[in-house]
Amino acid sequence: MGERKKRIGGTGMKWYAIGKTLTPLDRAPESGAAVVLLNSDELAHETALPGLEAVLHRTPSARDAHVCKAEVRSNCLSGTLALPRGRRDGTRLCCGYLVTKDRVVLVDDGEMAEPYLKHIVKEKRLIENSVGRFLYDFFELLIARDLHRLEEIEDRATALEDRVLSGELEEFSTPMSELRKETMAWYRYYSQLDDVACELREMRTATFRMRSADCSDYLKSASSACARNRSCCANTARRSSRCFSRRSTSVRTASCRS
Description:
The chain is 53% helix and 16% strand. It is of the alpha+beta class and 258 residues long. β6 (92-99) and β7 (103-107) form a beta hairpin. The protein has helices at 2-8, 40-45, 114-123, 131-143, 146-165, 173-202, 205-208, 212-257; strands spanning 14-18, 22-25, 34-38, 69-72, 77-86, 92-99, 103-107. It is built from eight helices and seven strands, in the order αβββαββββαααααα. 37% of the residues are buried.
């Protein structure tokens, strides 16, 4: 809790060097690629940061993050990430971001991004002085546990379908609607996240100094994972709709017979 208060209080700006691995720094680096983590209050009071003087104003705050999106400009890419899951207090996990040829800015008000940075540091993942490779690792961690969550939703849909069709559950519209709403939230999230990954892949390598492998192989894998998880959401939604249709048909048939 103390760490979170420090971050929200405007004194927790953190820098990480993008070298062979991701390394925490005490201050902004004099050269080389780097990640900077700050919150919306800090972003509002910063007019410039080293290496970001001309583009920092294009960074969205975490407060403006309601969807996943990316906007490409000639010298940077910026956007927001908003996860369908939230913290225990009900608030959503979200952040703003900006990417240049040698800087990544993450604007995080609620400990959405920092745990992933700490994980990359702890595991000493090889990012090979590459902004593109760092982005791949960040996206990989962002969705790492989602397939398990989606499988749990699918299991709930299967259990609900069995109860409805066996006649154990008379009032099915409310739980079914809640399940479909949750499923579609994940589906929209992965559709948006896939668009973001595609924008990152298509960034001009000459401008951002990313090797072809970074934009193609690394981020293509993230895009494929998004497509896989989006497909899982679609399957669950279809199962819910099929269950609803079967139950409605059953109810109408019973009504006609009576």
